[in-house]
Amino acid sequence: MLGTLRFAQPTNYPETTMKLPNFPKPLARFVSTLPSWPASRAFVAAGNLVAWPSLRDLDWSHVAGRRFRVQVSDLGLKLYFSVHANGFRALHNGLADVTFTATAQDFARLALRLEDPDTLFFNRRLLIEGDTDLGLTVKNMLDAVELETATAGMPVGMGRVVMKLRHLALK
Amino acid sequence: MSALLELICPAGSLPALKAAVDNGADGVYLGLKDNTNARNFSGLNFDAKALAEGIRYAHNKGVKVLMALNTYPQPDTVSRWHQAVDTAATSGLDAIILADPGLMAYARKVHPNLRLHLSVQGSATSYEAVNFYRERFGIQRAVLPRVLSLPQVENVVNNTDVEIELFGFGGLCVMVEGRCLLSSYACGDSPNTFGACSPGHAVRWQQTPKGMETRLNGVLIDRYADDEKAGYPTLCKGRFDVQGETYYALEEPTSLNSMEMLPEMARLGIAAIKIEGRQRSPAYVAQVTQVWRAAIDAVKKDMAAFKPGSFKPEAAWMAQLNKVSEGSMSTLGAYYRPWK
């Protein structure tokens, strides 16, 4: 019945993705050699410093203690952590309740609110495996934090850098 | 002057609402954090504090705020829906969007000054149905289901005083809105009472050697090869084995995009264009609102200049919209079809 509808073809339009600077190759090679545990600890330390001040007031009750794995596909990096009342905590490799996989560039684009996760998912640039509801909950909780609140909670100067990057990418 | 092509944009969070307002929406629609609306996902939607701030922000910039209360109350929990109507009435919202006649009767009786819109979930496809809701409950706007061709929309518009709102862009469902029970076969919940077709707890994605598999309560509904674009994990957009052939038996993952029909919609006097996507992030809302604002402004600026079929949306607009579309492609859906 739907056969006579005029369905458009998959996009032939030019790619409109706004670019961020690529991760420098030598640094990427170095990162890919890192074992997970120190990398997870470094990530968690940075997260607690930069992001936690604007996230601590959220209701983490449904999320506390659940195990997250973030896989940065182009860097071969796997980060394991959980969230607790006092911040992020690094975990040793092992099982995760939910796993997010994307490139460093795409994770950065998500963090800067330049891209919508559903868009990346449709384009097969973001994979969520495991407890989908947990992944969705965190995504929606983070979406509800205003960018201004997030950057205000960052160390001096860093918020400005983030907004500047976002501004440049949107131009 | 009555409304013409108002741009109504989705908001699942306060930042999304602000993105809609800042990028040129005329109205924003939202829902509460429970199953009183059809985007009942964990962590999404508005609590009392976010609602108050959202209304303040939007009204300061002259933008309307609408609340979707578009699921069907059940006898044992109907008070939750009544409370939601009360919340809407006392919060200074501009209208509520309802599907259930019982809820309309409640709103009409308890809050006679509250403006009512008939939700797409109400599935009113004829002017008789629309006028019935007007006579009984005083609805002032109806959102038409996406099953009608534009000539059929015209027939409704020409025979009612109710403002007509059409979907412009976004997720396209199998088009029996408000009456679809498909996902309950896999999830055990009806989307019309639970408030979601595929609740997160029922969805599992897994990368396997054969491709990315999507399961709904354990039922394999699709498997994507690495080079295939993906869609939402709903039964209607799954690929199924039908007599030995595996294909999209109901609907392909694709989004509605009616932008090229904007001049015809303007000519019909369509009051508002709705953008789907309360489940999506602020980035989507900003991108889509910006593009539709530009397109509507272009059409309104010189309505007489456009003859049917002569409006060509800018390639950059269409590229932006296709990029955020399900399966990275879009369709005019039923709006354009030669048969009746």
Short description:
The complex is a heterodimer of chains A (171) and B (340). With 171 residues, chain A is of the alpha+beta class.
Give the tally of β-strands of chain A. 5
**CATH architecture descriptor of the largest domain in chain B:** Alpha-Beta Barrel
Rg over C-alpha atoms of chain A, rounded to the nearest angstrom:
18 Å
Coarse structural class of chain A: alpha+beta
Average pLDDT taken over every residue of chain B: 94
Radius of gyration from the alpha-carbon trace of chain B, in angstroms: 20 Å
Largest interface: A-B, 46 and 61 residues
The total of beta strands of chain B comes to: 15
CATH class of the largest domain in chain B: Alpha Beta
Strand ordering within the main sheet of chain B: 1-2-3-4-5-6-7-14
Number of helices of chain A: 8
Terminal Cα separation of chain B, in Å? 33 Å
Question: What can you tell me about this protein's structure?
Answer:
The complex is a heterodimer of chains A (about 170) and B (about 350). Chain A has one domain: SCP2 sterol-binding domain (Nonspecific Lipid-transfer Protein, Chain A, 2-Layer Sandwich), CATH 3.30.1050.10. Chain A has 8 helices and 5 strands; from the N terminus they run αααββββααβααα. Chain A has helices at about 25-30, 35-50, 50-55, 105-110, 115-120, 130-145, 145-150, 160-170; strands at about 65-70, 75-85, 85-90, 100, 125-130. The longest helix of chain A is centred in the first third of the chain and has 15 residues, at about 35-50. An 8-stranded parallel β-barrel of chain B has the order 1-2-3-4-5-6-7-14, surrounded by 6 helices. Chain B has about 350 residues and is an alpha/beta fold. The mean pLDDT of chain B is about 95. Chain B starts with 5 loop residues before the first strand and ends in a 9-residue tail after the last strand. Chains A and B meet through α5, β5 and α6 of A and α1, β8, α10, α11 and β15 of B.
Give me some keywords for this one.
heterodimer; A: 171 residues; alpha+beta; Nonspecific Lipid-transfer Protein, Chain A; five-stranded mixed β-sheet; 8 helices; 5 strands; 42% helix; B: alpha/beta; TIM Barrel; three-stranded antiparallel β-sheet; 11 helices; 15 strands; 32% helix
